[in-house]
Amino acid sequence: MARKFQPQMATGNDLFEGDVVYFTSTGCWSRDIGDAALAVNSEAADDLLARASAFPNEVVSVYLVDSAIDDRGRAAPAHFREVFRTRGPSNYPEHGRQAESV
Amino acid sequence: MYQYNDFDQAFVRERVAEFRDQVERRIAGSLTEAEFLPLRLRNGLYLQLHAYMFRIAIPYGTLNSRKMRQLAMIADRWDKGYGHFTTRQNIQFNWPKLRDVPDILDALADVEMHANQTSGNCIRNVTADHFAGAAADEIEDPRATAELLRQWSTDHPEFLYLPRKFKIGITGAPNDRAATKTHDIGLRMVRSSDGLPGYEVSVGGGLGRTPIIGKVVREYLPKADLIPYLEAILQVYNLAGRRDNKFKARLKILVNETGLDEIRQQIEARFAEKRAEWPPINPGLLAEIEAAFTPPVFEPAAPVAPVLSAGLRSFIDTNVAEHKQPHYAIVTVSLKPIGGTPGDATSHQMRVLADIAEELGHDDLRISHEQNVVFPHVPRRHLPEIYDRLKAAGLATANIGLVSDIIACPGMDYCSLATARSIPVAQEIAETFADIDRQRDIGPLKIKISGCINACGHHHVGHIGILGLDRAGVENYQITLGGDATETAVVGDKTGPGFAYDEVVPAVERLIGAYLDMRTEPGETFLETFRRVGMGPFKAALYEEVRSDAA
């Protein structure tokens, strides 16, 4: 039996700041993972990656990653690496994305 | 301290101008990311999880107050007010912006620093004994040789595109504090039968995916033959090293696959040719380099007040080592405060370190591969003042060589290669063993933690090594025991199944508890006990609780 398709999102790093960004359903980049567009099958995932890769002078290191879905139906990190990317370093809570939410 | 000559200065400035142009072209879109990536790596600029990371070379770990203050300035002006000292004796800044990096490089060039060859498949920053020039056990200061190697390897056209990165470590003392056997080439100073200093040369050491202790390829190499001999090693490697598989591309794999005797013959044959064609090193140039490493003018012996404070006594016991001048001391400043991040220093702390070095320590500072800072030349009469000033800056932790003096790589808190976190594991171990009396009772113990198989945290050569992995989407930590990075270097043995994140610290506690139960007397160290009793009893202690839980 084929493995159930895990929804995908496209993420990368801002060329100038180096920080984490997510590709949205409106075709732009957001710093909020909740804005990430979700691809629910492999064709949609290929299309998502192609569209996200069309900004080579703004966003780099673009890749698709498994996404969870939160209770509001929005994208959420599935793997612990992606959880850390939404936050910042655990040794300095005042640095990285986590600093903006306090 | 070696001072840049006109050639060095012009070279570093040209490299900055070149990179400034490359950054501008990247921003303008005329360089693609694929084109830009190797260029930025050649200048020490990485892209990590949350931001760029900028790695700056500290050749053979040596700084003075002016350089340290400039690092503090860079931390404040272009980063978040701190820096991270690494196991390669470098410093990394974790939050630079792409547009600022050329300005940072110019600020570095102002104090004769750079970021060249801190990445890429080239000869990397040469590391050296952090006690060089000061240690009581030293034959000679190895840094003149290290500087010669820096000049020889900088932009060496033949060795900029090696099969893989290439690391050289050097020590002038029989006690190896520079982990030379874990380097592609390890140089350990020895004397010939007629008393002349030269080098024992090891090749093919390295940690990472395939940890191997370097093997002695030449028992004694006269100093004058060093460059042609190293070129011979590099040429053999450059020609025969594997380029088809990144994981098998290091010199250690070539040495293992070829065999030590065969590789020795190849090196010696190439060396015979090189030696004939290589002109002798310009004696004027060599004298100039050696003059840059002459010892400071030591002050005359002076009476030292008796140590009355318990805090200072404890600090002297753990953080102060013997200097070759009896009335001097080598002071190691721990960058491992309990609960802190191993190797991190704030800009304020950097300035305090710079001030102390300048005023009380002959303006000399070292970075150790164990991520601490060293004042190599301190008159003993200044120890109380230094202690007080360090204490005021949160830098007087008296734990050098003890359980909380942990090496940890940045791990998944920063690094895009990491498979698990390292820093919080180190923090929790240090907090668990925070009590200094408990630490001193446990005695010398080196815990080293890496957040991935690349082993920047040197876990293979930790007495207790911890490797963080991703096992089916969960952090899992593999433990090794009995590793050693010194002149008796050995790769540690795996204990068995790994531990979940919240099981690691209790596992380390069980290991240390087992050691305390088994040691014959308080003077028997963890490593000695492990060597005496072997893996069995430690393994039993480590997995006992897990088994009883399952039962």
Automatic annotation (TrEMBL), chain A:
InterPro entries in the record: DUF2849
Lineage: superkingdom: Bacteria
Pfam families found in the cross-reference section: DUF2849
The protein's name: DUF2849 domain-containing protein
Organism field: Amaricoccus macauensis
UniProtKB/TrEMBL annotation, chain B:
Domain annotation Nitrite/sulphite reductase 4Fe-4S: ranges: 119-274, 405-545
Cited SUPFAM superfamilies: Nitrite and sulphite reductase 4Fe-4S domain-like, Nitrite/Sulfite reductase N-terminal domain-like
Gene Ontology annotations of biological process type: sulfate assimilation
GO MF annotation list: 4 iron, 4 sulfur cluster binding; heme binding; metal ion binding; sulfite reductase (ferredoxin) activity; sulfite reductase (NADPH) activity
UniProt-listed Pfam families: NIR_SIR (PF01077), NIR_SIR_ferr (PF03460)
Keyword flag Metal-binding: yes
Gene3D superfamilies: 3.90.480.20, Sulfite Reductase Hemoprotein, domain 1
GO cellular component, as recorded: sulfite reductase complex (NADPH)
Keywords for the protein's UniProt record, in alphabetical order: 4Fe-4S, Heme, Iron, Iron-sulfur, Metal-binding, Oxidoreductase
Domain of life of the organism encoding this protein: Bacteria
UniProt enzyme class: oxidoreductase
Domain Nitrite/Sulfite reductase ferredoxin-like: 52-110, 332-393
EC identifiers of the protein: 1.8.1.2
CC cofactor: [4Fe-4S] cluster; siroheme
UniProt key word Nucleotidyltransferase: no
Similarity comment text for this entry: Belongs to the nitrite and sulfite reductase 4Fe-4S domain family.
UniProt name for this protein: Sulfite reductase (NADPH) hemoprotein beta-component
Species whose genome carries this gene: Amaricoccus macauensis
